């Protein structure tokens, strides 16, 4: 078992493609860290550098106390599971699991023990005599993970391992991977662009964009205290609502003025917002922090806005209301019983404790 650290790691591909820029990341022993970000942000490149499948252009990578920049992949004691986990089709599940150990010249009895142990952990002991085409997609995915487990590596690397599975199986396998981590307590680094996977699996999430690390925090901290507008909008479904407007001061009080509505800001935010008075700003509020006044207990004229309900999406357990101020549309997630008429004007209450403000130029969070 081992910690993994990346110090100022950069990767420039041929043709001056800057895939990763000065990445600093410290992953604790036994930690489950998710690298999250949009397509092309450098997640796989980072993982492949840790695995030793890609050279590091600048910086240092340590696994445990060992600098591994010049250590070949096969000697790094890591195992990687890919999205395209091609199993050997002509080999039985048992032999697929045993293959890497045979290559490494483990004894037959040791191989048998490890294969059976891994199959037991993954619940595939009854499939060992089948070929890949005789098992389901989810079971195949388990075999792919099993091939990594038998090696008892110090670190597991996963690159979007669930993206070939259908939605239901994804959720199921996500739980399996979670359980696996609890069971085998090994450092895991998991790449995905799916924020739900990141939120549910990660001890910490490293949010990346354009080859840079934007934030490295626990899922709840990333959710509640995003460092900038990008992170705020990337985490959460439906995503945070953003509205452009300005801060105005009236009778010593600060308001966010969207044109169609004004809403009073809590005094605890005055200090940070002071330099934005009469200036443009971006207001952010999550859909679950907006309530229909009919059902809200803490409605006051200061935190309530009048908007038009344009669409209601029924999700079963809740409704998504698509609301319009005239200048902006935004989403509120409300109870299933709360179903305003389409086209009607509704009074919505904002939980002002939960709102954020962002600088319109830098997009950094102000408060
Ligand atoms: N072998 C390569 N040669 C040149 N450029 C590459 C190579 N591999 C990746 N890139 C580029 O580096 C950047 C990062 O790619 P990477 O595969 O790390 O992204 P990613 O975050 O894993 O994206 P995805 O979610 O689509 O898998 C992209 O701009 C990509 O086009
Ligand atoms: Mg990738």
Radius of gyration: 25 Å
Poorly predicted regions: none
Helix content: 10-25%
Q: Span between N and C termini? A: 39 Å
The strands making up the biggest β-sheet line up spatially as: 6-7-8-3-9-10
Question: What is the makeup of the main sheet?
Answer: 6 strands, mixed
Strand fraction: 25-35%
Total domain count: 2
SSE class: alpha+beta
CATH class of the largest domain equals Alpha Beta
In round numbers, the mean pLDDT is 96
The CATH topology annotation of the largest domain reads as Rossmann fold
- Count the DSSP helices: 9
Indicate the overall shape. elongated
Could you give the order of the helices and strands? EEEHEEEHHHEHEHEEHHEEEHEEEEEEE
Structure description:
The protein is an alpha+beta fold and 367 residues long. It folds into two domains: 4-234, Rossmann fold (3-Layer(aba) Sandwich); 241-358, Nucleic acid-binding proteins (OB fold (Dihydrolipoamide Acetyltransferase, E2P)). Helices cover 24% and strands 33% of the residues. The protein has nine helices and 20 strands. The protein has helices at residues 43-51, 93-103, 108-122, 137-149, 167-184, 195-201, 219-224, 229-234, 270-273; strands at residues 4-13, 17-27, 32-36, 58-63, 66-67, 78-81, 155-159, 187-192, 204-209, 212-217, 241-250, 253-257, 262-264, 280-285, 290-292, 304-314, 318-324, 329-335, 345-350, 356-358. The strands form four sheets. A six-stranded mixed β-sheet has the order 6-7-8-3-9-10, sandwiched between helices. It has a five-stranded antiparallel β-sheet with strand order 13-12-11-14-20. Helix 2 (93-103) packs across helix 3 (108-122), helix 2 (93-103) runs parallel beside helix 4 and helix 3 crosses helix 4 (137-149). The longest helix is centred in the middle third of the chain and has 18 residues, at 167-184. Magnesium ion (MG) binds at residues 43-44.
